[in-house]
Known about the structure:
- This protein is an alpha+beta fold.
- It has one domain (12-155).
- 45% of the residues lie in helices and 12% in strands.
- Strands 1-3-2-4 form a 4-stranded mixed β-sheet, with helices on one face.
- The protein is globular and about 50 Å long.
- The two termini are 31 Å apart.
- 28% of the residues are buried.
- This is IrrE N-terminal-like domain-containing protein.
Amino acid sequence: MRFARRDNGTSERELRKRCRGLLRELDVQPPLDVHEFCARLAVVRGRPIKLVPYPLWADGPFGLWFKGRTTDFIVYQEHTTKPHQRHIILHEVGHILADHPSDEGADHLCDMLAGPGGEMPEPPDALRCRTAYEEREEREAETVATIILEWASILDAMRLPQSSDAAEGVDAALSDRLGWL
């Protein structure tokens, strides 16, 4: 599955269109569960995605993606809020979907991630590790994460609540709902 082109980047309009198509194809229902989303994406791509919570260093990236021989690994900051973790994971998914190339010279991070027991399941073929959003690829990945989260927020807000009182359910569905859930 090739999600975006590499030449001069992809317009936000095109990214939105592709994200909507992917979300329809994956049939992800609200509320958005990023683990389920990644599992469905892995099936469509024919390549597993393993989500790895890890206590990343404070002055480094919040997340990273590396491509192993058979599996994609998304490592995300273990010590942050669940909504932030969700955004981090979807940002790294954005790199995967856009088929971004890996950074050069980031292999030393694998040793850090292996930990004291060396439990890294396989050595990476490619690794993403950037901490600034000024590069086109970072903006694309951030845009993909934002588009998916916007979609999830809208669908979640439109979802009818489960209630035994039908009138209460209709009232809740038609009233304003503010904020992220």
